[in-house]
Amino acid sequence: MSFFDKIFGGKQEESQEKSFWNPIESEQDLSQAIEKSYEQKIAIFKHSTSCFISKTVLRNFEKEIEAAEGDKAKFYYLDLLAHRNLSNKIAEDFSIRHESPQLIVIENGKAINNASHQDITLNQVSS
Q: By the 8 A CB rule, do 125 and 41 touch?
């Protein structure tokens, strides 16, 4: 891995290896995630793999998830650079302005909370 990949993230993001992430890589994945929101809250983390700020926020959020007791939600991960069309669909379907990084919490098929940049914390999922 090159120096820049270590700083900005290479093609294989460390976060995708975390067991709590469920990747969204297709419209079918997104539809299944939305369906899951009728059973429990879901949280979609939209991440730009080329952005240092996004990578830092992602790491901090992952630490919060790992430190939390109990499952507050099912967590989904969307690589914005690889799947910009899905990010646009989420923004349009839920009437939420696109930002990166961004966390969108969905319950019963509706966005109930969202945050971006340094405002992303596990509290957005709990509230």
A: yes
Q: Packing angle between helix 84-94 and helix 27-36, nearest 10 degrees?
A: 40
The SS3 assignment for 11 reads coil
Of the pLDDT bands very low, low, confident and very high (cuts 50, 70, 90), residue 72 is: confident
Q: What are phi and psi of 61, to 5 degrees?
A: -65, -40
Q: What is the mean pLDDT of residues 41-63?
A: 95
Which residues are bridge partners to 42 per DSSP? 74, 106
In 3D, which of 56, 34, 1, 54 has the Cα closest to residue 108? 34
The answer to whether the pTM exceeds 0.90 is: no
Distance CA 52, CA 82 (A): 17
For residue 101, cis peptide bond before it (omega within 30 degrees of 0): yes
Which stretches within 26-122 are classed as H helix?
27-36, 52-67, 84-94
The 10 Å CB-count burial string (b at 16+, else e) for 101-119 is: bbbbbbbeeebebbbbeee
